């Protein structure tokens, strides 16, 4: 399982939103968990001012959804104790994938491209480049609909 987030701007939205200082935008943060093939396992939408390490509880819905997954790959933003506690709660080992100290600029990190690709497909393919829903549950539902359409399309058109 690979974990990552992406911040998107809110346009004309009155609901919860926040300022992401790293991206310098007012909006929301989309949290995605994907499997080793890039299929969406869980999605959540939170205000953009929420730290990455604090977004994982938003993915829980009270049941054990991933009994067969044993490894969580995450980037440096998920290194705090709360993420480790979440992985331990779900019985997963976790590994942080970061750039080396001598690497500069863009570097494709191991397996992280899968979640980046999936977040890109959700944004571009579903017409969700900007957040327009007023409520977080509606925004999450729209993402889930696009993810379902992507999965159905993948089943219908195998590569």
From TrEMBL:
Domain annotation Transposase IS4-like: ranges: 2-144
Q: Which domain of life is it from?
A: Bacteria
Q: Which GO terms describe its biological process?
A: DNA transposition
Entry GO MF terms = DNA binding; transposase activity
InterPro entries the UniProt entry points to: Transposase_11
Q: What is this protein called?
A: Transposase IS4-like domain-containing protein
The species this protein belongs to is: Methylobacterium dankookense
Taxonomic lineage of the native organism? Bacteria, Pseudomonadati, Pseudomonadota, Alphaproteobacteria, Hyphomicrobiales
């Amino acid at each position: 399982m690979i974990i990552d987030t992406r911040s998107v701007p809110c346009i004309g939205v009155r609901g919860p939103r926040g300022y992401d200082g790293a991206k310098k935008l007012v909006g929301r943060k989309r949290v995605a968990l994907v499997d080793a093939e890039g299929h969406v396992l869980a999605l959540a939408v939170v205000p953009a001012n929420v730290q990455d390490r604090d977004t994982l509880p938003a993915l829980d819905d009270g049941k054990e959804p991933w009994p067969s997954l044993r490894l969580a790959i995450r980037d440096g933003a998920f290194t705090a104790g709360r993420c480790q506690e979440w992985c331990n709660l779900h019985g997963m080992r976790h590994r942080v994938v970061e750039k080396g100290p001598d690497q500069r600029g863009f570097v494709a990190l191991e397996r992280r491209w899968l979640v980046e690709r999936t977040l890109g497909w959700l944004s571009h393919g579903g017409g969700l480049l900007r957040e327009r829903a007023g409520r977080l549950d509606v925004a999450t539902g729209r993402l889930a609909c696009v993810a379902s359409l992507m999965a159905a399309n993948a089943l219908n058109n195998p590569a």
